[in-house]
Amino acid sequence: MRSVIVVGGGISGLAAAWQLRGQADVTVLESAPRVGGKLRTGTIAGIAVDEGAESLMALRPEAVELAAAVGLGDALCDPAQAPTTVWTHGALRPLPAGHVMGVPTDPGALAASGLLSPEGVARAAAEETLPAEPLTEDVSVAQYLAARFGREVVDRMVEPLLGGVYAGRADRLSLRAAMPRVAALAEQGEALVPALRRMRAAGAPRSAPVAVQGVAGGTGRFPAAVAAACGARILTGTTARSLALTPAGRWRVQAVTDDGPLTMEADGIVLALPAFAAAELLRPHSPLAEAELSAIPHASTAVVTMAFSRAQAHFLPQGNGFLVPPVDGHTLKAASFLSNKWAWLARAAPDVFVLRASIGRIGEEGLLDRPDRVLVRRAIAELHRAVGPMGEPVATRVTRWDRGLPQYGVGHRERVARIREAAGKLPALALCGAAYEGVGVAACVATGRQAARDLLTAAA
Ligand SMILES: Cc1cc2nc3c(=O)[nH]c(=O)nc-3n(C[C@H](O)[C@H](O)[C@H](O)COP(=O)(O)OP(=O)(O)OC[C@H]3O[C@@H](n4cnc5c(N)ncnc54)[C@H](O)[C@@H]3O)c2cc1C
Predict the structure, then answer these.
(1) What are the residues facing 166 on neighbouring strands?
(2) Which residues have CB under 6 Å of ligand 1?
(3) Which of 240, 260, 264, 239 is nearest to 251 (CA)?
(4) Does domain 298-406 have CATH number 3.40.50.1820?
(5) Alpha carbon of 113 to ligand 1 centroid (Å)
(6) Atom of ligand 1 nearest to the CA of 12
(7) Sheet arrangement for strand 321-323
(8) Per-residue pLDDT for 209 more than 60?
(9) What is the CATH number of domain 94-206?
(10) Which of 273, 341, 403 to mutate to test the pocket of ligand 1 (most atoms within 8 A of CB)?
(11) What is the pLDDT of residues 162-204, one digit of tens each?
């Protein structure tokens, strides 16, 4: 394989390009003016802030390892230690110690958290006494966990976390794809509480000191560093419009650029794109892959970033932020107090307090049709209710992520297997990105590197 075109310059495509360095002549096509996709650092009141992903998972090694390999080792930083907090029943309440993705394992801590009613606590505590039949097919997160723990655990503990990661809903997300560790225990026919307690005692969830890490200066530095280190030719402002296989078995890409049309050829191709964009390009080549990719739903979200003057604010909140369960009917999905969470940001802008509020889950697209000023007003009003009267921000910025997060519905893993099988019939073509084996940055890096390895192996 002498040459490869990577379509999509998000972190998945860049990880693929990095894996191919020194082994092929690589060109990355990116439609936006800069690489990075959902890893984007912008500015508010002159301060660098993340507008998309703000952290890299550290329990999975792929993202932090690649960041270190491309020279950002010294920039990796831990967030301030603070419990994950849920705004519910009119107060901020920490998730109880011992929870695993919102699944409680310590009834005493659960009762003390105030998250659930006394009946809800008793219902959750009964989980270890319920018979557990081995789970034989995929079900929704809500279906499985509500049957074992009661609806309150789903509504006030699991659902806010799933909203934070997927902008998704527990009654639609796949247990196997969205909570694979829990699904694996369910498939063994074990009650979850004793099994999760055993796993915790064995140290399984504590293989890294913190669950996530940030990049000082913003996560947008990460794709830029990978792009610089991978040695690929990076063409921004270049949108792939169609693919064709030449008689010689090479891939020909027709693209549009600011300067007009562009045609390129290469021995292999990596599609590192959102599912709907990959579907468009695959339509003439694999109707099955196109149909399955098009069937993956996507949630749209908006991030409302606000800067408050520390001198003028009436009040500044403690902690790293909070999650919001949809059952309470609020507009906010989550809030992240960036100036508390990231020491680099507090050092860079000591006079300003920066936070960001997230709005929009799957099914809430109507909310996002409102103009920016409406989203800002709603975010401020709810923040005041949740944490107290902070006053008015000195600057605001709304970033919209249209169809930004793929939804792993029931049967997602089987759908991905069908997509990979169909795409595997096309020569020298690999798929990677958030649509397949995980939406987090670490999972995206893993799919990108794997796509590159698959191309090289197939060509060997
Ligand atoms: C608001 C938000 C917050 C998030 N927070 C976190 C977090 O804190 N931690 C975490 O781990 N994950 C987080 N995620 C998820 C994670 O950031 C993404 O899943 C991941 O970055 C996706 O990377 P990707 O390369 O697969 O896709 P993308 O980042 O979408 O990159 C795909 C690229 O392809 C380009 N493109 C599309 N069509 C074409 C075409 N035809 N030709 C050329 N280029 C094209 C796009 O412009 C884009 O740059 C967040 C996501 C969002 C939306």
Answers:
(1) none
(2) 7-13, 29-32, 37-39, 52-57, 239-240, 272-274, 277, 301, 303, 401, 404-405, 433-434, 439-441, 444
(3) 264
(4) no
(5) 35
(6) 25
(7) 91-94, 85-88, 321-323, 332-336, 352-359, 298-309, 395-406
(8) no
(9) 1.10.3110.10
(10) 273
(11) 998 999 999 999 999 999 989 999 999 989 999 998 887 776 5
